Amino acid sequence: MTNKRWRDLDPRLRQAILVGAAFDTGLKVAALVDLSRQPRAAVRGPKLVWAVALAVVNSGGVLPLVYLLRGRRLG
To answer: What pTM value is reported for the model?
Structure first.
């Protein structure tokens, strides 16, 4: 496989990559803000572990969605 440079990529592919990265970043920010506002008892698992995972793991938006849907105790 040859290494392509950013400028060599098709403009539509570059746009798709940027949109995906913006979506992932937005979800991470939303999840981290929500996590910081939740009391410890309202989060499933240690808040520090969630925060590190959300900040470090590149999951394509999956990990922030998992936190927002399953990592919080609602009600």
So the answer is: 0.82
CA distances for 1 relative to 4, 8, 12, 17, angstroms: 9, 14, 21, 19
Task: Note the pLDDT tens digit of each residue in 31-53.
Answer: 999 999 999 999 999 999 999 99
State pLDDT tens for residues 60-74.
889 999 999 999 987
β-bridge mates for residue 72, sequence order: 43
Determine phi and psi for 72, rounding to 5 degrees: -105, 145
Where does residue 7 rank: exposed (0-12), middle (13-18), buried (19+ CB within 10 A)?
exposed
Which burial class, exposed, middle or buried, applies to 27 when counting CB atoms under 10 A from its CB (0-12, 13-18, 19+)? buried
CA distance 52 to 16: 27
CB 36 within 8 A of CB 43: no
